Amino acid sequence: MSAKEERGALTPPTALYDQALRLLREYPGGVPPRRGHSLPRRTAKGENPLSWKEAKSAVREALTPLPADPATLHRRFERLGVQERHKHLIGSAVAGLPLRAGQVDGARALGRGLIRTGTTALTVTAGIALLGRLGEPEDVPYLSVVGLFRDLTGPAVNALDLLDRRSAAVLWLAVHAGRDDLQPLVRALWTGNGQAVRPELISLPASCRSVGSAVARRIAEASQLPDLLHHHPSDTGLLSRAGRLLVRMGRSRDEPTDLLSYRDALRVYDSVVTRADMLPPTLDNAAMLLSLALDLSSGTGVLLDWPPGRREALLDSLGRLLAEPRWVVAGTAGSEADERSRADWIRRTGRQPFKRPATPDEFRVEVVAGDPADREPVEARVLIDGRPVVPAVFGRGLAHNPDYLLDEGRLRAGVEPREVQLAEADCTEGCCGALYVTIRRDADQVVWENWRQTMPGSREPAARLPAHRFDALAYDTEIARAENDCSWSWRARTIARLIKAGLIEQPELLSRWDADRGWISSGFDDPDTAVVTFWYVPGRASGSPEGAESPLQFRWVVPDDGTSPETQAAAALRRLAEEDPKSYAQVCGGSRERAEELGFPWPDGL
Asked: In 3D, which of 299, 364, 292 has the Cα closest to residue 321?
């Protein structure tokens, strides 16, 4: 061995904590980079011979009994073949360790040693897990530093959530809040510049779309929002921002249950609603308050742990305020197209959350169109016993839209059981799952049973949900009301719904052209247009389809011409009956090869 090799062999690896601290000092102002740091690259150890079950057992064996020092745990991991790819198994293993009272101090000391001297992600993850279970306030700075390695951020944030929610939120934002417009606030939070937090929070972009639900919750936690509101009771800019953060927590397509994870939600709701009469009556504020009311009426906000009658009192307060002439005027103001769309939404939706349901609360369907500035999907919220089902049991996506659940009668109850997908994760079912229920009629009752959650990749069974029985007459009445209620819908959406209803009633309007109905709704990029899509397979009408496995998808955009939705839908259906839609629709899906084979141009950029 050369002298250089000998020195390398004798020099112990640098602790990850020390590496993170050094990297942090290298950045201007001691503020970490977006997305944190990468873990040091280590030499690969070849194929991993352990199965998931074997690795889980090996991790438990390495931790039992807990070693007296970090080096012993490191050697156990190596001897048992536990590798860094198994670090996700450590948290549950540590949580399940039986610890007698006399072992707690030793386990805590081991956790601190692993955090401060551990040289691998495995050993540091074990330290994080031990401090998540046994840590004290003095451990917070060390967890915050090692959590800057993005592979360790999740475990470190989970541990900090139990010790210091503010520090957990600051670390989470430092690593995950990548947008440029969030960086001044993140910098103020990380450096502890309390004087800058409030102005930076208020100066965030007004657009809700710039802040997701998780970011909104972590901003509220990191900035200690209830305390800010308490110390600045007359700051209407802060009050408005607090309301917008609540809206984002409860109305995001990503994680609609972030609101339920926010421990101070009730305090912030109270502050915003009880002081709402101080806010300037602007279109932005009217939209924000209406969004809060919709959430308190039928959204995730219903599920918070409210004192008896408090939620209803806040909802009544919002109803009285938004009915005042100055707020009615504010909700109709707007000259630009986006403002007019928002004002139209307020006119349509303004009294919806304040109406008492005509049918009993045992079963209700509330179609909710959110603020168009937020571009959230329309939801068909199902409420059982007054509580919204989807956010209560499925936290990975919003309830399906009425096009899917209501327009095609999926919620109707028949003698034959029917399984219905109520919600799907925004990233698709194949990624993060979906929620299903089976609906059937049983004499004079309708039964919702056999609830099913799909969770790809999970080895844990989904929670079992109870069956619910409803009076069949009341159920049918509510479904009919929801299916026929168009009060939530804007013109282009109504046109699309009427076209879709016509095609459901007369499928031959498309089938005669070798086409099948696809997605039909208002345009996402331009909500003032109706969009009709269909799938084309040559020979389908004659019963001899050619290339059914590779259909072409077409898209027809129907702009709103200002006449009544009924007139426009009828004209669209007549055109479908008289002219081959492939002559005026454009290819929007399938494959370039199939389009060229059939003589259709492939659109640029697809």
From this structure: 292
Q: Tell whether the model's pLDDT for residue 148 goes beyond 80.
A: yes
For 226-294, the DSSP string reads HHHHHH-TT-HHHHHHHHHHHHHHHS-SS-TTHHHH-TTHHHHHHHHHHTGGGS---HHHHHHHHHHHH
Residue 526: beta bridge partners?
Answer: none
Question: Is the omega angle on the peptide bond into residue 65 within 30 degrees of 0, that is, cis?
Answer: yes
Give me the torsion for CA of 81, 87, 89, 95, rounded to 10°: 120
Residue indicated by tokens 């503020």: 31
pLDDT (tens digit, 9 = 90+) per residue, 152-195? 999 999 999 999 999 999 999 999 998 889 999 999 999 999 99
Q: How far apart are CA 382 and CA 388, in angstroms?
A: 6
Beta bridge mates, 118: none
pLDDT score recorded for residue 1 = 41
Name which residue leads in pLDDT, 395 or 35. Answer: 35
**244-257 b/e with 16+ CB inside 10 Å = b?**
bbbbbbbbbbbbbb
- C-alpha neighbours within 13 Å on the C-beta side of residue 104: 8
Contacts of residues 307-313 at CB distance under 8 Å and 24 or more positions apart, as own/partner, are 310/266, 310/270
Is the alpha carbon torsion for 268, 246, 390, 351 positive or negative? positive
Distance CA 26, CA 29 (A): 9
| Element at 155 (helix H, strand E) | helix 150-163
Q: Which residues of 553-562 are buried (b: 16+ CB within 10 A; e: fewer)?
A: bbbbebebee
Cα 490 versus chain centre, distance: 25
Distance (Å, rounded) from C-alpha 523 to C-alpha 547? 29
Q: Yes or no: say if 503 and 518 are a contact pair by the CB < 8 Å rule.
A: no
Residue 382's closest CA among 491, 465, 443, 320?
465
For residue 485, pLDDT over 90 is answered with: yes
Secondary structure of 501-561 as H, E, C letters: HHHHHCCHHHHCCCEEEEEEEECCCCCCEEEEEEEECCCCCCCCCCCCCCCEEEEEEEECC
**Dihedral sign, CA of 365, 255, 282, 345?**
negative
Which residues have a Cβ under 8 Å from the Cβ of 183 and sit 6 or more positions away? 34, 177
Q: How far apart are CA 149 and CA 175, in angstroms?
A: 9
pLDDT at 455: 79
**Residues constituting the chain:** 606
End-to-end CA distance of the chain: 59
Residue 100's contacts (CB-CB under 8 Å, 6 or more residues apart) are none
Q: Is the pLDDT of residue 358 over 50?
A: yes
Helix axis angle for 236-250 and 265-274, nearest 10°, is 130
Which pair of tokens denotes residue 152?
């360790």
423 CB-side CA count, 13 A: 29
The alpha carbon dihedral of 201, 204, 206, 212 has a sign of: negative
Residue in 206, 215, 530 with CA at minimum distance from that of residue 373 = 206
Name the pTM for this structure.
0.90
pLDDT greater than 90 at residue 257:
no
